[in-house]
Q: What sequence folds into this?
């Protein structure tokens, strides 16, 4: 069978090391050289000729993370790698997935074009901000679902009166997957914004009185929406409110907002490293799921079989 090489960009090595450990392969040797002006030159210090190469790199800011991934893919292609998969746990610029006003880019499509132009044969990621981003690619996309790590954790919490809530109308499909699994209802928080990262108003649609509410979202940035939703839900008579958010962007006053909020717990994954610790934030690792997905890809087995039904 063709050899597997698991390699990593600099800022995702914390996760790549765990993935390689679960997979049972050592993490490949990559060095990033820099010129005096800051320009980078990634170097793969081992042969990848004919190999299945998996590059692990989330594309959160700074933009150098994306640039580094593109250069690594190009290096592997020019070194005659057999098959190149870009494993992008957090796919940056995914919020810009459509032209919602004049003279703005569709950035997610541009990133897709760049990855294909660099030489990627396959993309593996988790919880796109919008499912339609898969259609921006003309190469296979393995879209992993975070329910595979969150659902077992929620079962361990013993929430007898649980109900799931979407913090906005756009997240209803994501939330319904949890409510369907737990055979319970769902609630919708209908919000509207007057500008980015600032919620102007919110209405809770559904009955949360006496329930343990779990808010479900794909990412948390400033945490303004989550904290506002938690506050309103508690005022509606909920017993507790916790939140599941796959990608912990956590910018601005996010940590302060969370610690001062009505949230019992914020459950996130390690697709993005936390900038600081918080007693309210619980991190669950995606490493085992990605390792299994990499193995299934290499062995031409189903990826959907990894998900909780």
A:
């Amino acid at each position: 069978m063709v050899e597997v090489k698991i390699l990593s960009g600099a800022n995702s090595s914390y996760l790549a090391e765990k993935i390689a450990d679960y997979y049972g392969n050592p993490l490949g040797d990559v060095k990033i050289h820099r010129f005096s002006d800051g320009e980078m030159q990634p170097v793969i210090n081992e042969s990848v000729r004919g190999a299945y190469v998996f590059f692990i790199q989330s594309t959160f800011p700074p933009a150098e993370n994306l640039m580094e991934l593109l250069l690594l893919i190009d290096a592997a292609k020019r070194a005659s790698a057999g098959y190149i998969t870009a494993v992008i746990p957090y796919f940056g610029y995914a919020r810009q997935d459509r032209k919602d006003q004049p003279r703005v880019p569709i950035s997610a499509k541009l990133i897709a074009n760049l990855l294909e132009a660099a030489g990627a044969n396959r993309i593996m990621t988790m919880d796109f901000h919008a499912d339609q981003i898969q259609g921006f690619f003309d190469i296979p996309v393995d879209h992993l679902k975070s329910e595979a790590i969150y659902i077992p954790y929620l079962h361990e919490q013993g929430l007898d009166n649980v109900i799931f809530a979407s913090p906005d109308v756009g997240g209803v499909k994501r939330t319904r997957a949890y409510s369907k699994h737990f055979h319970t209802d769902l609630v919708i928080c209908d919000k509207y914004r007057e500008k980015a990262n600032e919620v102007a108003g919110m209405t809770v649609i559904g009955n949360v009185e006496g329930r343990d509410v779990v808010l479900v979202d794909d990412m948390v940035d400033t945490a303004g929406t989550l904290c506002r939703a938690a506050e309103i839900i508690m005022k509606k008579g909920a017993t507790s409110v916790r939140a599941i958010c796959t990608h912990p962007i956590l910018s601005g006053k996010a940590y302060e907002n969370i610690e001062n909020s009505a949230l019992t717990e914020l459950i996130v994954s390690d697709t993005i490293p936390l900038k600081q610790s918080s007693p309210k934030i619980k991190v669950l690792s995606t490493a085992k799921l990605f390792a299994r997905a990499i193995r299934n890809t290499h062995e031409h087995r189903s990826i959907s079989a990894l998900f909780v039904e």
